[in-house]
Design goal:
With 292 residues, this protein is of the alpha/beta class. It is built from ten helices and five strands. It has a five-stranded mixed sheet, sandwiched between helices.
Amino acid sequence: MNQHVHHFPVEAMATVLGVSKSGYYQFLKAQPSLRSQANQYLLEKIKKIHQSSYETYGSPRVHAELLAMGESCSRQRVARLMKAEKIMAKMQKKFKKTTQQSGKPYFIGDDLIQQDFTAYQPNEAWVSDITYVLTQKGWVYCSMILDLFSRRIVGLAIDDRMTASLVLKALKQALTHRKPPAGVVHHSDRGSQYTSKALKMLADDYGVQISMGRVANAYDNAVAESFFHTLKTELVYFCQYKNLEEATMSIFQYVYGFYNQKRRHSTLGYLSPAQFENEFNVNRKIPFLGVH
């Protein structure tokens, strides 16, 4: 009846169909409004985005994802719908740095970063760090290398021993996949793994400049620590890993399947690291700043 109301009288249609006019009007009142239907449609998309983000996205990143999908909506509307449905980013726990400084370093590099974590092209400067991850069989250790330009993880290694070979594995991975020009900066703290002879020799072979922050100053490697904070508060703290293999599979999947490819970063204009680099490679300028 509702589809033909502009062509036939309601009373005539009700008589033909054997229904009452009052019943028809009650039916109309029971139907959700167009706005309600639109909100429900948007809410379904919000739920899918939130789930695919490991339930880590709040309204700003969900809104950015919706815009990328071609949906037209305000951030306030997204926030309101998420709040009504109690959809929120996972609660973050306090992250504590756990690496230790070297007692007898083979080599200590100068601080070439000086807390300036900006880079204007890929493979200009990398930062690295190590963190602990608990499994049912004990601690395992995760070492990563992050490109300061795009915040992309370019090297990742996990082992049940925190030795120099752990950071060597991450660095070799980054060198193999990225093939950086000579002079790329590798910045870290002064942990024994980073002040080892093995790391210095590998860096020299590839023309990598070793840079190190000061002792007991978290701000000197803030971006690396920020990544581990994200990793732990978005993934690790919500998992109970049985062993090294399970932790490795989970973390690699999160980093290479989600963090690098999909996770939207506020510092990158809500692009993912991969999207940010792709935009730069196509246009040869930093996407949201327009810097050549």
